[in-house]
Amino acid sequence: MTLANLIPAHPEPPSLALPYPLAVGRAGLSGFPSPAQDYEGRTLDLNERLVKRPSATFFMGVTGDSMVRFGIYDGDLLLVDRSIDPRPGHIIVAMVDGEITVKRYELRGQVPCLCSGNPRYAPIPLVDIECQVWGVVRSVIHEYQV
Q1: Catalytic residue selected from 55, 103, 116, 139
Q2: How far apart are CA 73 and CA 80, in angstroms?
Q3: 139 classed as catalytic
Q4: Which one is catalytic: 66, 83, 116, 139?
Q5: CB burial class (10 A; 0-12, 13-18, 19+) of residue 86?
Q6: What confidence score (pLDDT) does residue 39 get?
Q7: Where would I find the beta strands (DSSP E) of the chain?
Q8: pLDDT tens digits, 11-27
Q9: Mean residue pLDDT across the chain
Q10: Residue 13 neighbours by CB under 8 Å, 6+ apart
Q11: How many other C-beta atoms can be found within 10 angstroms of the C-beta atom of residue 63?
């Protein structure tokens, strides 16, 4: 995956409370929710929910198919936090030999690697290679085509 666009998060995002009913949707047969649940006054602010550190957060569009196994698809928008120290298992945005990439940080034996979520792409061992971590992916925004 490569960089499509880079958008900084607003340093003080305005509050935007959207309706957030108590009902939780199951990905299966769930029956009918109580009609009273529609009248509960709950709201959800996506800035509050997703952007934990606004000054260290940016949005990034991605292209390519190297992360499909991890639920990141061509055209998705990533929310990236620069303040998180990457650990094995994190999906990170990094500059590797001058190219921006999105990969999963893993240890293979004792060798740190950047790994794809697509078997067509080999892991990138971080040995004798220049790698600058830009941040850890906190969220993926995937829009369905309608």
Answers
A1: 103
A2: 16
A3: no
A4: 66
A5: middle
A6: 54
A7: 2-8, 17-19, 43-45, 57-63, 77-81, 91-96, 99-108, 111-115, 124-125, 131-141
A8: 666 665 655 555 555 55
A9: 82
A10: 47, 51, 54
A11: 15
The two three-digit tokens of residue 47, written as one number: 């800035």
Closest CA to 91 of 110, 115, 123: 115
Helix segments in the chain, DSSP class H: 46-50
Q: 3-state DSSP call for residue 76? A: coil
Strands 131-141 and 77-81: antiparallel
> Per-residue pLDDT tens for 27-49?
555 555 555 555 556 777 778 88
Print burial letters for 100-129: b (CB count within 10 Å at least 16), e (below 16). bbbbbbeeeeeebbbbbbeeebeebebeee
Dump pLDDT digits (tens) for 70-90. 999 999 999 999 999 999 999
- Give the pLDDT score at 9: 58
Which amino acid is located at 101 in the chain? T
- Is 30 among the residues known to form the active site? no
Q: Cα separations (Å) of 114 from 30, 50, 79, 126?
A: 40, 25, 19, 7
Say what the pLDDT of residue 52 is. 87
